[in-house]
Amino acid sequence: MTRWIGTSWKMNKTLAEARTYARGLREALSSRPELTEGVQPFIIPPHTALAAVAAEIGPSSSSPGSAPGVLLGAQNAHWEDSGAWTGEVSVPQVADAGASLVEIGHSERREHFGETVETTRFKVEAALRHGLIPLLCIGESAQVRQEGGAAGFLLDQARGALQGLTEEQLSRVLIAYEPIWAIGAQGRPAEVDELLEPFDVLHREYGDRVEALLYGGSVTPANAPELLAIPGVEGLFIGRAAWSLQGYLELLQLAARPSDA
Prior knowledge:
The structure is a single chain. The protein is of the alpha/beta class. The protein has a single domain, classed as TIM Barrel, CATH 3.20.20.70. It has helices at 15-31, 47-57, 91-96, 107-113, 117-129, 142-146, 150-162, 167-170, 192-206, 224-228, 245-256, and strands spanning 3-8, 39-44, 71-74, 101-104, 133-138, 174-177, 212-215, 235-238. The longest helix has 17 residues, at 15-31. The protein is globular, with a radius of gyration of 17 Å. 42% of the residues are buried. The mean pLDDT is 94. This is Triosephosphate isomerase.
Protein backbone atom coordinates (compact mmCIF):
# COMPACT_ATOMS: atom_id res chain seq x y z
CA MET A 1 0.00 0.00 0.00
CA THR A 2 1.20 3.48 -0.89
CA ARG A 3 0.99 5.99 1.94
CA TRP A 4 0.19 9.55 0.90
CA ILE A 5 2.09 12.04 3.07
CA GLY A 6 1.47 15.70 2.34
CA THR A 7 1.34 19.17 3.77
CA SER A 8 -0.47 22.41 3.01
CA TRP A 9 1.44 25.55 3.89
CA LYS A 10 -1.77 27.58 4.09
CA MET A 11 -1.05 31.37 4.02
CA ASN A 12 2.62 31.00 4.90
CA LYS A 13 6.05 31.36 3.26
CA THR A 14 7.45 34.06 1.02
CA LEU A 15 8.87 33.15 -2.39
CA ALA A 16 12.36 32.96 -0.91
CA GLU A 17 11.22 30.71 1.93
CA ALA A 18 9.27 28.49 -0.45
CA ARG A 19 12.24 28.10 -2.78
CA THR A 20 14.55 27.23 0.10
CA TYR A 21 12.17 24.55 1.38
CA ALA A 22 11.62 23.09 -2.10
CA ARG A 23 15.33 23.07 -2.91
CA GLY A 24 16.10 21.34 0.37
CA LEU A 25 13.37 18.77 -0.25
CA ARG A 26 14.71 18.02 -3.72
CA GLU A 27 18.23 17.54 -2.39
CA ALA A 28 17.09 15.39 0.56
CA LEU A 29 14.95 13.05 -1.52
CA SER A 30 17.60 12.73 -4.22
CA SER A 31 20.19 11.66 -1.66
CA ARG A 32 17.85 9.59 0.54
CA PRO A 33 15.59 7.56 -1.78
CA GLU A 34 14.46 5.42 1.16
CA LEU A 35 12.24 8.34 2.27
CA THR A 36 9.87 7.71 -0.61
CA GLU A 37 9.76 3.91 -0.47
CA GLY A 38 6.06 3.10 -0.36
CA VAL A 39 5.25 6.79 0.06
CA GLN A 40 3.69 9.39 -2.22
CA PRO A 41 4.85 12.84 -1.02
CA PHE A 42 2.92 16.00 -1.88
CA ILE A 43 3.20 19.63 -0.87
CA ILE A 44 0.64 22.40 -1.32
CA PRO A 45 2.16 25.90 -1.37
CA PRO A 46 0.15 29.13 -1.56
CA HIS A 47 -0.74 30.14 -5.11
CA THR A 48 1.94 32.83 -5.16
CA ALA A 49 4.68 30.24 -4.67
CA LEU A 50 3.34 27.37 -6.77
CA ALA A 51 5.34 28.08 -9.93
CA ALA A 52 8.51 28.83 -7.97
CA VAL A 53 8.23 25.57 -6.02
CA ALA A 54 7.53 23.66 -9.24
CA ALA A 55 10.71 25.08 -10.74
CA GLU A 56 12.76 24.03 -7.71
CA ILE A 57 11.25 20.55 -7.41
CA GLY A 58 11.79 19.80 -11.08
CA PRO A 59 9.50 19.18 -14.04
CA SER A 60 9.07 15.45 -13.39
CA SER A 61 10.10 12.79 -10.94
CA SER A 62 12.32 11.16 -13.55
CA SER A 63 14.26 14.26 -14.52
CA PRO A 64 17.88 14.55 -13.32
CA GLY A 65 18.06 16.67 -10.19
CA SER A 66 14.32 16.65 -9.56
CA ALA A 67 12.63 15.66 -6.30
CA PRO A 68 11.62 12.02 -6.80
CA GLY A 69 7.88 11.54 -6.97
CA VAL A 70 6.77 14.76 -5.25
CA LEU A 71 3.36 16.04 -6.34
CA LEU A 72 2.45 19.70 -6.08
CA GLY A 73 -1.01 20.91 -5.18
CA ALA A 74 -3.00 24.12 -5.14
CA GLN A 75 -4.97 25.13 -2.05
CA ASN A 76 -8.05 26.03 -4.06
CA ALA A 77 -9.29 26.50 -7.62
CA HIS A 78 -12.50 27.76 -9.18
CA TRP A 79 -14.78 25.39 -11.05
CA GLU A 80 -14.95 27.58 -14.17
CA ASP A 81 -12.05 27.46 -16.64
CA SER A 82 -12.04 31.25 -17.12
CA GLY A 83 -14.23 34.31 -16.77
CA ALA A 84 -15.15 37.29 -14.61
CA TRP A 85 -14.25 35.78 -11.23
CA THR A 86 -12.09 38.48 -9.65
CA GLY A 87 -9.58 37.12 -7.15
CA GLU A 88 -10.04 33.50 -8.18
CA VAL A 89 -7.76 31.11 -10.07
CA SER A 90 -8.90 28.28 -12.33
CA VAL A 91 -7.87 24.65 -12.52
CA PRO A 92 -6.11 25.24 -15.89
CA GLN A 93 -4.18 28.13 -14.29
CA VAL A 94 -2.93 26.13 -11.30
CA ALA A 95 -2.07 23.24 -13.62
CA ASP A 96 -0.11 25.67 -15.78
CA ALA A 97 1.78 26.79 -12.66
CA GLY A 98 2.77 23.20 -11.84
CA ALA A 99 -0.07 21.71 -9.80
CA SER A 100 -1.22 18.14 -10.29
CA LEU A 101 -3.53 18.15 -7.26
CA VAL A 102 -6.21 20.53 -5.94
CA GLU A 103 -7.28 20.82 -2.31
CA ILE A 104 -11.05 21.20 -2.09
CA GLY A 105 -13.44 21.94 0.74
CA HIS A 106 -11.09 22.60 3.65
CA SER A 107 -13.07 23.59 6.74
CA GLU A 108 -11.51 27.07 6.71
CA ARG A 109 -12.79 27.55 3.15
CA ARG A 110 -16.22 26.34 4.20
CA GLU A 111 -16.37 28.55 7.31
CA HIS A 112 -14.82 31.77 6.05
CA PHE A 113 -15.42 31.75 2.29
CA GLY A 114 -18.80 30.11 1.88
CA GLU A 115 -17.66 26.81 0.40
CA THR A 116 -20.65 24.46 0.18
CA VAL A 117 -21.22 20.84 -0.68
CA GLU A 118 -22.43 22.03 -4.09
CA THR A 119 -19.30 24.08 -4.82
CA THR A 120 -17.06 21.23 -3.70
CA ARG A 121 -18.83 19.02 -6.26
CA PHE A 122 -18.24 21.61 -8.99
CA LYS A 123 -14.55 21.81 -8.06
CA VAL A 124 -14.06 18.05 -7.90
CA GLU A 125 -15.55 17.77 -11.38
CA ALA A 126 -13.33 20.58 -12.69
CA ALA A 127 -10.17 19.02 -11.28
CA LEU A 128 -10.99 15.65 -12.81
CA ARG A 129 -11.94 17.23 -16.13
CA HIS A 130 -8.44 18.65 -16.42
CA GLY A 131 -6.63 15.54 -15.21
CA LEU A 132 -5.78 16.79 -11.70
CA ILE A 133 -6.27 14.89 -8.46
CA PRO A 134 -9.03 16.28 -6.21
CA LEU A 135 -8.11 16.23 -2.51
CA LEU A 136 -11.50 16.49 -0.83
CA CYS A 137 -11.40 17.62 2.81
CA ILE A 138 -14.27 16.66 5.10
CA GLY A 139 -14.75 16.98 8.83
CA GLU A 140 -17.25 17.67 11.57
CA SER A 141 -17.36 20.28 14.33
CA ALA A 142 -17.12 19.44 18.02
CA GLN A 143 -20.85 20.12 18.38
CA VAL A 144 -21.81 17.71 15.60
CA ARG A 145 -19.62 15.05 17.16
CA GLN A 146 -21.02 15.60 20.64
CA GLU A 147 -24.55 15.23 19.27
CA GLY A 148 -23.62 11.88 17.75
CA GLY A 149 -24.03 12.91 14.12
CA ALA A 150 -20.43 12.73 12.91
CA ALA A 151 -20.75 9.66 10.69
CA GLY A 152 -23.78 10.94 8.81
CA PHE A 153 -22.29 14.41 8.48
CA LEU A 154 -19.09 13.05 6.92
CA LEU A 155 -20.97 10.86 4.48
CA ASP A 156 -23.20 13.78 3.48
CA GLN A 157 -20.12 15.91 2.72
CA ALA A 158 -18.39 13.14 0.78
CA ARG A 159 -21.42 11.88 -1.11
CA GLY A 160 -22.46 15.40 -2.04
CA ALA A 161 -19.06 16.29 -3.45
CA LEU A 162 -18.57 12.99 -5.28
CA GLN A 163 -22.11 12.61 -6.60
CA GLY A 164 -22.33 11.46 -10.20
CA LEU A 165 -18.72 10.35 -10.60
CA THR A 166 -17.92 7.16 -12.44
CA GLU A 167 -15.92 4.50 -10.63
CA GLU A 168 -12.89 5.44 -12.75
CA GLN A 169 -13.20 9.09 -11.75
CA LEU A 170 -13.72 8.15 -8.11
CA SER A 171 -10.54 6.08 -8.18
CA ARG A 172 -8.54 9.27 -8.75
CA VAL A 173 -9.93 11.10 -5.69
CA LEU A 174 -8.23 11.57 -2.33
CA ILE A 175 -10.38 12.08 0.77
CA ALA A 176 -8.85 13.73 3.84
CA TYR A 177 -10.80 13.41 7.08
CA GLU A 178 -9.95 16.45 9.20
CA PRO A 179 -12.19 16.87 12.25
CA ILE A 180 -12.55 20.61 12.81
CA TRP A 181 -11.98 20.22 16.54
CA ALA A 182 -8.56 18.65 15.92
CA ILE A 183 -7.02 21.09 13.44
CA GLY A 184 -5.23 24.42 13.74
CA ALA A 185 -3.29 26.03 16.56
CA GLN A 186 -6.22 25.60 18.95
CA GLY A 187 -7.01 22.05 17.87
CA ARG A 188 -7.05 19.13 20.26
CA PRO A 189 -5.14 16.08 19.01
CA ALA A 190 -7.56 13.24 18.43
CA GLU A 191 -7.28 10.01 20.36
CA VAL A 192 -7.05 6.86 18.29
CA ASP A 193 -10.36 5.60 19.66
CA GLU A 194 -12.08 8.75 18.39
CA LEU A 195 -10.97 8.02 14.83
CA LEU A 196 -11.95 4.36 14.58
CA GLU A 197 -15.62 4.94 13.77
CA PRO A 198 -15.08 7.71 11.17
CA PHE A 199 -12.54 5.64 9.28
CA ASP A 200 -14.66 2.52 9.54
CA VAL A 201 -17.59 4.43 8.01
CA LEU A 202 -15.44 6.02 5.29
CA HIS A 203 -13.66 2.78 4.48
CA ARG A 204 -16.92 0.87 4.15
CA GLU A 205 -18.21 3.52 1.74
CA TYR A 206 -15.05 4.41 -0.18
CA GLY A 207 -12.32 1.89 0.66
CA ASP A 208 -10.83 0.43 -2.53
CA ARG A 209 -12.90 2.95 -4.53
CA VAL A 210 -10.91 6.15 -4.01
CA GLU A 211 -7.18 6.64 -4.41
CA ALA A 212 -6.64 6.91 -0.63
CA LEU A 213 -8.21 7.94 2.68
CA LEU A 214 -6.03 10.37 4.65
CA TYR A 215 -6.15 11.75 8.17
CA GLY A 216 -5.35 15.32 9.09
CA GLY A 217 -5.55 17.09 12.43
CA SER A 218 -2.71 18.00 14.81
CA VAL A 219 -0.44 15.39 13.22
CA THR A 220 3.09 15.31 14.68
CA PRO A 221 6.04 12.94 14.52
CA ALA A 222 4.98 11.73 17.98
CA ASN A 223 1.49 10.58 16.99
CA ALA A 224 2.04 9.80 13.28
CA PRO A 225 2.89 6.10 13.79
CA GLU A 226 -0.30 5.36 15.76
CA LEU A 227 -2.40 7.36 13.30
CA LEU A 228 -0.98 5.39 10.38
CA ALA A 229 -1.81 2.17 12.20
CA ILE A 230 -5.54 2.96 12.33
CA PRO A 231 -7.49 0.64 10.01
CA GLY A 232 -8.48 2.56 6.88
CA VAL A 233 -5.87 5.31 7.21
CA GLU A 234 -3.75 5.34 4.05
CA GLY A 235 -1.84 8.55 4.62
CA LEU A 236 -1.56 11.84 6.48
CA PHE A 237 -2.39 15.43 5.57
CA ILE A 238 -0.19 17.55 7.82
CA GLY A 239 -0.18 21.18 8.87
CA ARG A 240 2.34 23.06 10.97
CA ALA A 241 4.43 20.00 11.91
CA ALA A 242 5.55 19.83 8.27
CA TRP A 243 6.02 23.54 7.63
CA SER A 244 9.69 23.10 8.44
CA LEU A 245 11.61 20.92 6.02
CA GLN A 246 13.08 18.87 8.85
CA GLY A 247 9.62 18.18 10.23
CA TYR A 248 8.33 17.01 6.86
CA LEU A 249 11.35 14.78 6.26
CA GLU A 250 10.90 13.21 9.69
CA LEU A 251 7.28 12.41 8.89
CA LEU A 252 8.25 10.92 5.53
CA GLN A 253 10.79 8.72 7.30
CA LEU A 254 8.16 7.51 9.78
CA ALA A 255 5.73 6.68 6.99
CA ALA A 256 8.34 4.88 4.89
CA ARG A 257 9.56 2.82 7.83
CA PRO A 258 8.28 -0.80 7.79
CA SER A 259 5.41 -1.36 10.17
CA ASP A 260 7.44 -3.89 12.18
CA ALA A 261 10.47 -1.57 12.57
